Amino acid sequence: MNSPDLYQQALLDLARAAHGAGTLPSPDGSVLRDSPLCGDRVRLQVALEAGRITAIAHDVKGCLLCRAAASLVGLHGTGLNATEADALRGQVAATLAGSEPPPGWPELALFAPVRPHRNRHGCVLLPFEALAAALDSHSRA
Amino acid sequence: MNFSPAKWRRHFPLLAAHHELHYLDNAATGQTCAAALNAATAFDTQSRANVLRGTYRLAEQADAAYENARRQAAAYLNAAGSEEVVFTAGTTASINLVAHAFGEGLHAGDEVVLSLAEHHSNFVPWQMLRERRGVVLRLLPLTADGRIDLSRLGETLTPRCKLAAVTHASNVTGAVTGLAPIVAAARAVGARVLIDGAQAVQHGPVDVAALGADFYAFSGHKAFGPTGVGVLWGRGEALAALPPFLGGGGMIGRVTVEETTYAPPPRRFEAGTPPIAQAIGLGAALDWLRAQPWADMNAHTARLAQRLIDGLAVLRGLTFLGPRDLKERLPIVSFNLEGIHPHDACQVLDEYGVAVRGGHHCAQPLMDFFGVQGAVRASIAPYNDDADIDALLAGLQDAVRKLK
């Protein structure tokens, strides 16, 4: 029932670092994603070159978990293409279900204490879903 | 005071078994009382059969228990008769029933009046009706502290209004609606009135005759009864004027290949096998509740709400959503702590055994009004005590230390 490690210092630091927070002057892809459960909202923009991310910016109105996840996207998301971003979304979901974090994303281990709190999984997933959707929005444009 | 929260708590098996739990999410769902559990179990173990169909003795026993539950609900509401009680799946189902059945008679340009304080369950069905029928939704505005602003009633509820659908009390602020002027204004233009009673019924018996409305909706699970059941009360002539919503068994007069005639209310609105055990459990809960010392119980919960408000008020960066006083207000307290997301606060509170809800509380238009995404909400029931409030306050201080 308890979650003593959920708000560990490293996760708080990641959220406060807010890697990638802000807006892009001329994004190639942009999405707004809402969490129907809690009302959290992520606006995420990407700049692309040859289908790969060259810059990411996000504006998060959400909880610490959502902000930390968005910060992680800002930290490591550059260089992904649409296929990889879509796969990453599934890998994050798998990590929340108990799998090891995917290569290149070791900080996802910070979210391990979220595993038993299924209603909070969406808080972590929202920025990753937004990332995949931003790339998808560009490919459809 | 002729009331002991500790003794009352013993009537709730989950709470009796979990003394460490500080359950303050009663606006979301109340704990189930033993009366409801025992009645539902008695039905399932002693007289389970489908209702309104069988001629064997077991079925007749089931019929009697089900119709007795209808009488118990009618008594709790001071309804003119049990035929005015329709069992539904809950408040949402009750409101959707009216939105569909009453909405069948509306036309483009007809107006439905809501308020900005409504739960999504009394908002979305009317937006869906707007899409189907082209009706116009008009919103009663709010005062700065979240009460429905009755000074704007005259300009909002016009002669084009066909129905006013408003909450009896906000699930976020606890503010009790001043219904009398709304009912009077609706009556003056020949409009119907539906009251969303989801938050009110668990704070004492309701007098629908005195309220003067046409429809009253509530859920069993918020009234310490089972989940999956609720009530739509409708004034006799108002229900009789409605066409059916769902079609199926049990709601018909006669079915031929060419056409179907419909049963009179309440059966017209209970297509299919109803939630029989749940309705019987709800009837028992309401019967038990009706005999409780509500004046003392409401004084007790108001004192706890004041204790909570006083304890919160000293926290730096705290803002309340809704009135600060307890006048015409249920013991529901919603608030935000600057820099701490409601979900994070609730997660830390869980470590203290405190169960409260964080989020938009299915009232996003109200959240927009307050300029917030969500809030922490503590909602108090008679089985709560000082220890519950103090655990919440202690947990919040820890949340500030951990998260700020």
How is this fold's topology laid out?
The complex is a heterodimer of chains A (141) and B (404).
Chain A: H1 9-17, E1 29-34, E2 41-49, E3 52-61, H2 64-76, H3 82-96, H4 118-140
Antiparallel strand pairs in A: 1-2, 2-3
Helix pairs in contact in A: 1-2, 2-4, 3-4
Chain B: H1 5-9, H2 13-17, E1 22-23, H3 34-46, H4 57-77, E2 85-88, H5 91-101, E3 111-115, H6 124-133, E4 136-140, H7 153-156, E5 161-167, H8 179-188, E6 192-196, H9 208-211, E7 215-219, E8 230-234, H10 236-240, E9 252-255, E10 260-262, H11 276-290, H12 294-313, E11 318-321, E12 332-337, H13 342-350, E13 354-355, E14 357-359, H14 364-370, E15 375-379, H15 386-403
Parallel strand pairs in B: 1-13, 3-4, 3-5, 5-6, 6-7
Antiparallel strand pairs in B: 2-8, 7-8, 9-10, 11-12, 12-15, 14-15
Helix pairs in contact in B: 3-11, 4-11, 12-15, 13-15
Could you characterize the architecture of this molecule?
The complex is a heterodimer of chains A (141) and B (404). Chain A has 141 residues and is an alpha+beta fold. In chain A, strands 1-2-3 form a three-stranded antiparallel β-sheet, covered by helices on one side. Chain A is built from four helices and three strands, in the order H-E-E-E-H-H-H. Chain A has one domain: Sufe protein. Chain: A. The model of chain A has no long low-confidence stretch (mean pLDDT 93). The termini of chain A are far apart. Chain B has 404 residues and is of the alpha/beta class. Chain B has two domains: 5-26 and 293-403, Aspartate Aminotransferase, domain 1 (Alpha-Beta Complex); 47-290, 3-Layer(aba) Sandwich (Aspartate Aminotransferase, domain 2). Helix content of chain B is 39%, strand content 16%. Chain B is built from 15 helices and 15 strands. In chain B, strands 2-8-7-6-5-3-4 form a seven-stranded mixed β-sheet, sandwiched between helices. A four-stranded antiparallel β-sheet of chain B has the order 11-12-15-14, with helices on one face. A two-stranded parallel sheet of chain B has the order 1-13. In chain B, helix 4 packs across helix 11 (276-290) and helix 13 crosses helix 15. The radius of gyration of chain B is 22 Å and the shape is globular. The model of chain B has no long low-confidence stretch (mean pLDDT 97). The chains are: A alpha+beta (141), B alpha/beta (404). The A-B interface holds A 1-4, 6-7, 12, 37-41, 61-65, 117, 120, 123 and B 341-344, 347-348, 350-351, 353, 358-360, 364, 367, 373-374, 402-403.
